[in-house]
Amino acid sequence: SQELEQSPQSLIVQEGKNLTINCTSSKTLYGLYWYKQKYGEGLIFLMMLQKGGEEKSHEKITAKLDEKKQQSSLHITASQPSHAGIYLCGADKTSGTYKYIFGTGTRLKVLA
Amino acid sequence: GAVVSQHPSWVICKSGTSVKIECRSLDFQATTMFWYRQFPKQSLMLMATSNEGSKATYEQGVEKDKFLINHASLTLSTLTVTSAHPEDSSFYICSADYGTINYGYTFGSGTRLTVV
């Protein structure tokens, strides 16, 4: 089974609307990363969360990691067409070994 | 910021030939690099972890004799797809681990391989 579950798998929103993408693990994570990708291109690093309860923001994107470090959410405020793409969460599977896993991805489309 | 250069960005080869993909860390040394492959509409799948000066560690199900990885220096890792077949056609991406919170894992731009 997939170790990192993302939801929803795909999302279509009207420009200006807010949206949230979730990333869930059954095990404690030792670093949670959010990336954006346009298909066929390299991943763009958005932000990293390490501490339980941590929250970071960059422009209109906010990411949170829950206290148990098993779930993270990515929230986009007032979405724009430029936000469209595939959002991937990634995580360090074990501490100190950089065993890295990816989520299933969320395909976002923003309608102008 | 840290930059990882991957080359070529796309390649078409005939079945049975070998293809080499390079991944260079331009600004910083990277002791560890990772190689992923991605099929259309799927998430990236880790293939192997490349460590400078030692043998690569392959994920389960990845043939080490088919996907040769060489990490001869702290700025260069190469992936060679040997005796390529059409089912090897995919998008391959490398990433470098700089071990800092600021950069996370910096990724190359990817290589689209088509085997005909």
Describe the secondary-structure layout.
The complex is a heterodimer of chains A (112) and B (116).
Chain A: E1 4-7, E2 10-14, E3 19-25, E4 32-37, E5 44-49, E6 55-58, E7 61-65, E8 71-76, E9 85-92, E10 100-102, E11 106-111
Chain B: E1 4-7, E2 10-13, E3 19-25, E4 32-38, E5 45-51, E6 57-58, E7 67-73, E8 76-81, E9 90-97, E10 105-107, E11 111-115
Short descriptors:
heterodimer, A: mainly beta, 6-stranded mixed β-sheet, 5-stranded antiparallel β-sheet, 0% helix, B: mainly beta, 7-stranded mixed β-sheet
How would you characterize the overall build of this protein?
- The complex is a heterodimer of chains A (112) and B (116).
- Chain A is built from no helices and eleven strands.
- Chain A is an all-beta fold and 112 residues long.
- In chain A, strands 2, 4, 5, 9, 10 and 11 form a six-stranded mixed beta sheet that branches. Chain A has a five-stranded antiparallel beta sheet with strand order 1-3-8-7-6, with no helix packed on it.
- Chain A is globular.
- Chain B is an all-beta fold.
- In chain B, the strands form two sheets. In chain B, strands 2, 4, 5, 6, 9, 10 and 11 form a seven-stranded mixed beta sheet that branches.
- Chain B starts with a strand and ends with a strand.
- Chains A and B meet through strand 10 of A and strand 5, strand 9 and strand 10 of B.
Strand content of chain A: over 45%
Calculate the terminal CA-CA distance of chain A, rounded to whole Å.
36 Å
Sheet/helix structural class of chain A: mainly beta
Question: Count of DSSP E strands of chain B?
Answer: 11
Mean pLDDT of chain B: 85
Mean pLDDT of chain A: 85
Oligomeric state of this protein: heterodimer
